[in-house]
Design a protein that fits this description.
- By secondary structure, the protein is α/β, with parallel strands linked by helices.
- 37% of the residues lie in helices and 19% in strands.
- It contains 12 helices and 9 strands.
- Strands 1, 2, 3, 4, 5, 6, 7, 8 and 9 form a 9-stranded mixed β-sheet that branches.
- Helix 3 links the parallel strand 6 and strand 7.
- Helix 2 crosses helix 3.
- The protein is globular, with a radius of gyration of 17 Å.
């Protein structure tokens, strides 16, 4: 699990290797590449080459003050894909990682076989969408402890050990207490841009997600032409962690078609 030096960042990643079709995973703002511990073995066993990385400012990746900061969401991934010699790959992202994934899909559609966006607000800047988001995510929800915001109540109540492990990864995601300035997309993300996307997309949502609930993600999915929309009952914002068997099956079935 080495570092790669790119302009502006010392990027930490892991790569299962092998000759399988590549799948790249992009983590949430509450995680690192360690968050995918339930996915990487399952996808590797299914024959895929699995790659995950700590996004700039998270986990073990470090910004390099000698380079441009904060950089753009899609650029670090594009540099990583080029460095690893990836031709076309599946991109799987959750929560804040989904914003970067949509940015990449719009900037470099020729590099992707498919896109999976799970539990993400998507980063759309359309005023009507932002207003719905504002009503669904009032300050009272934003002020909750991170595990109450992101983990569904069914999971927190029935799996205390899994909850503790998730919290430990979340704490390790910000070793210096802050991620610094957020990376913007190359261009503003809008519904008009999504409507021109010609790429198979799976949008996954948790039925108990406080931060990107089904109503919000349906608005996002409605503007993506080749979109499949699926809800995982009772799952919160970290559906991939809370219900990995169901989540993995849905994603593997989808990418297997493309």
């Amino acid at each position: 699990m080495p570092f790669i030096e790119f302009p502006g960042v010392h990027l930490w990643y892991n790569d299962s290797g092998g000759a399988g079709v590549p799948v790249v995973f992009m983590h949430a703002a509450s995680g690192t590449c360690d968050s995918w511990e339930y996915q990487l073995p399952a996808f590797t066993a299914a024959g895929y080459r699995c790659i995950a990385y700590d996004r700039r400012g998270w986990g073990r990746s470090r910004a390099d003050p000698m380079g441009e900061q904060p950089g753009y969401l899609s650029d670090d991934l594009h540099d990583l894909a080029n460095h690893l010699g990836l031709d076309r790959f599946h991109l799987v992202a959750t929560a804040a990682g989904g914003i970067g994934a949509l940015d990449y899909a719009l900037e470099h559609p020729e590099r992707l076989r498919s896109l999976v966006v799970a539990n993400s607000i998507g980063g759309m800047q359309d005023p009507a969408y932002l207003e719905v988001q504002r009503r669904l995510r009032p300050p009272e929800i934003q002020a909750l402890p991170v595990e109450l915001r992101e983990l569904g109540p069914s999971y927190r109540g029935t799996d205390p050990e899994g909850t503790r492990r998730w919290i430990a990864i979340e704490h390790a995601s910000r070793p210096e207490g802050t991620h610094g300035p957020a990376q913007p997309p190359r261009q503003p993300l809008t519904f008009a841009r999504l409507e021109a996307m010609q790429l198979p997309v799976l949008v996954l949502v948790g039925g108990a997600d406080l931060l990107s609930p089904p109503a919000l993600m349906r608005l996002l999915a409605a503007h993506i032409p080749q979109c499949q929309f699926t809800t995982i009952a009772e799952a919160g914002h970290a559906a991939f962690w809370e219900q990995p068997e169901i989540w993995n099956r849905l994603v593997l079935e989808f990418i297997g078609q493309h």
